[in-house]
Amino acid sequence: MSDEVLSLAQATAQMTAPGSMFETERASVHGIEMTVWKHAPATLRQILDLSLAHASRDFLVYEGQRFTFDEHYRAVSTLAQRLIADGVTKGDRVAIASRNLPQWVMAFWGAVLTGAVVVPINAWWTPEELQYGLSDSGTSVLFVDEERLERLRSKFDDLPELSTIVVISEDPTRPARLGATHASVRTVDFNEYVGDISASATPPDVDIATDDDATMFYTSGTTGHPKGAVGTHRNAITNLMNLFFVGARATMRWGGGNLDESGESIPNAGLLSVPLFHATGCLATMITNTASGGKLVMMHHFDAGQALALIESERLTMFGGVPTIAMQILDHPDFAKFDTSSVKSVSYGGAPAPPELVRRIQAAFPGGMPGNGYGLTETSAAVCLNGGADYVAKPESCGPAVPVTEIAIVPEDFDGDEPTPDLPSGPGVIGELWIKGPNVVRGYWKKPEATAKSFTKGWLRSGDIARIDDEGFVFIVDRAKDMIIRGGENVYSVIVEAAIFDHPDVADCAVVGLPHATMGEEVAAVVVLRPGRVIEAEEITRHVARHLARFEVPTKIFFRAEPLPRNPQGKVLKRELRTSLVDRVERSA
Question: What is the reported pTM?
């Protein structure tokens, strides 16, 4: 083998050539021509079947519980049969509102096998937000943990389409606590619902097509309620192929991979430190491990010390999710006491990552490969991925787009319905990033106006401001959607502002994101009070906490006597405001 490293373009060309595993072709998807992976599996059912190639390996590990791939396959096959017997049919919505648990994964695959649309609900949502997601999606069957059950109980009467709630016990030694019965909503313990599992159980025979709906992840909008992004089997599998392709291309260019000292392949083992109700946790991590035979290790809640202990005891090969996870592990005072030599990959996305994090990862994990990426709920996770030597060379970039995805830089005032050849181009051009490909969801659930605003002729208007250098590497410059990314969670300023405006003493407010050492960004609010009113910052945070999820509550409140800075059209100059707040915080540090 030559010591010369293939360029990105050379490796991509070789791997996508006719006859190769990653060959691409043109196809019509929902009537729109685009590039797709020619040899991709057709449905998620096929992905689950692939997992039996690793039948005896551990798949799910959580607080002493272990399930092999075979045990998982038989359990979800049985669960799917129970759901069908309970009246679930193709296209019905089955929701999951729970912390990361092995049964979350089983509920997902069990529902997928029925042809239902899985609705992962944000487990941090308030009762009102949970009610909205279940009502908006028209969910008929819901899987919850005990905490979410109690949070939702007062809303049962407002959910006429919800018929069954399957409750997961966080303590495997006892049945779930179901609480009081309800006239129209049945509650049942997860293990009781699944019942006896046959060692030869197989999935039900359901006719599922590649472009059938499979998932509905809720994404907060810049106005109003969250929107359900409807993803298909093709969307989810495209993301899987994207990740496999990028990993294989890295190995082709730089060698390495998960190999032991004798050169034998080591099964992947990953720490699941991001929620399964996010596209990253579900599509990029859980589905990928299902297909590849990778062990998935979960924690009740993230703790850097426990994470280090699991890396050592479970011989984990990868972790990450969001940059704050990597930083907390690296910063732990007992880091050097643990054996972390098994780590081969530290990858993350979902939040801006400081370039020095790349150097720290290289120093701490000599056998590991740092990586970063960019994607959205609407793109079924990955659009761009940057890893290895490329990431070291360009740590500010989220990498080039995957081969089946088209991207374009479009002026923010562009009024066309798809990018045109005459648009400005080149490494110095900055504009909104538009994305097209088989990973882009088909639209928002029952929201035609919002769909028309964000999707056009197969293109997604990302709302992110970016530039593309002469090698095709994407650099996210700013976010046009006025969004804050706090520890991997999307916080939309307009929603927090609406909650603050609801306080009777508030005359005006603006919410911005400020840099944070471990969380990426923190939520900061600038508040102008009505004349003669005086309140403490804690009053604002308590008020917001009554209406929004914990991650949306501002951690810094700044009171301002003068009006907020605005442009001639009346829009708050948030970039100017953010800069002044950063200066203020730095001066007071």
Answer: 0.86
